[in-house]
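Researcher: Let's do a round of design. I'm pasting the structure tokens now; please hold your answer until I've finished.
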């Protein structure tokens, strides 16, 4: 009999129960138990934990853990909270998540490209006026981050006819995309982009990556989309750039504190679109299948999927 798998989260009981049911259906040969219901014997025996925003104190109650499987693609919080002595962490790498993110990047790029914020403001003022149309080939979209999500987004944008640039920590080769890296590469991308899209993981290197100096490098009238993490952009610097008109519009799906505080100026800013962290929701069915396959492979071979580099943070 295999050891039980601990499910560890800070979710409400009903959400946790739904996930455990979905995961159990995907791997009927495994026993998945919430740490809240585990006996002391089960906690001692558990070798695997499936987690969603786990409390570090709960992880500490599982002394026999050999590895942790996150249900989220973003792992900056768990890496920060568990620290370098944590068991190996596997983050969720789901093609369905990438597909949904690519869909969102294309949708909100169109939103900006087709002047929808401007038309909304015109409607409020009862102004009947057509705005100049630009062909996608004349619009440069700069992707800041070319991982799985950025690569899928680039494919969607290219198929729609946009001119696409991409920046990554180390230089990548992506067909049809002008790729850059490093400080000079980021500066070049920002200077050329009509719309910049943030898709990088949050690490010590990317925290505050888009600050006043880098926003100033962008074209006057350019726009920005943040589908990464709130702390990638310095909020006050972005607000100043929006107030001055240098940045025309910002689509923000992520914030340092979520839900967004009711007093935040982003809510009422005329040149900001606020989204409630919905650009790429986790799909329970596809996620459970991926977790199940990874656990099956480990049971069979003892080999782990790619684990998080605790130094880089992803």
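Researcher: That's everything. Go ahead.
Model: Designed sequence:
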């Amino acid at each position: 009999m295999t050891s039980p798998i601990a499910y560890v989260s800070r979710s409400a009981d009903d959400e946790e129960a739904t996930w455990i049911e979905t995961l159990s259906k995907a791997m009927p040969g495994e026993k998945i138990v919430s740490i809240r219901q585990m006996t002391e014997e089960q906690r001692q025996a558990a070798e695997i934990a499936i987690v969603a925003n786990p409390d570090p104190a709960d992880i500490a109650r599982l002394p026999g853990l050999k590895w942790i499987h996150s249900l989220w693609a973003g792992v900056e919080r768990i890496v920060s909270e568990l620290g370098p002595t944590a068991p190996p962490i596997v983050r969720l790498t789901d093609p369905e998540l990438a597909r949904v993110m690519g869909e969102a990047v294309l949708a909100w790029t169109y939103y900006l490209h087709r002047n929808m914020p401007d038309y909304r403001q015109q409607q409020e003022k009862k102004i009947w006026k057509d705005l100049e149309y630009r062909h996608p080939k004349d619009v440069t979209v700069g992707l800041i981050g070319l991982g799985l999500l950025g690569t899928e987004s680039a494919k969607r944008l290219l198929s729609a006819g946009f001119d696409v640039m991409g920046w990554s920590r180390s230089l990548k080769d992506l067909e049809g995309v002008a790729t850059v890296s490093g400080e000079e590469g980021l500066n070049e991308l920002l200077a050329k982009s009509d719309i910049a899209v943030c898709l990088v993981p949050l690490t010590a290197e990317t925290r505050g990556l888009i600050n006043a100096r880098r926003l100033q490098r962008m074209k006057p009238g350019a726009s920005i989309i943040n589908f990464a993490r709130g702390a990638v952009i310095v909020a006050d610097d972005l607000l100043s750039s929006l107030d001055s008109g240098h940045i025309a519009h910002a689509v923000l799906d992520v914030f340092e504190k979520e839900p967004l505080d009711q007093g935040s100026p982003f809510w009422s800013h005329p040149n900001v679109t606020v989204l409630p962290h919905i650009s790429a929701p986790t799909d329970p069915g596809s996620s459970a299948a991926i977790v199940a396959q990874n656990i099956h492979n480990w049971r069979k071979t003892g080999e782990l999927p790619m684990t998080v580099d605790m130094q880089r943070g992803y």
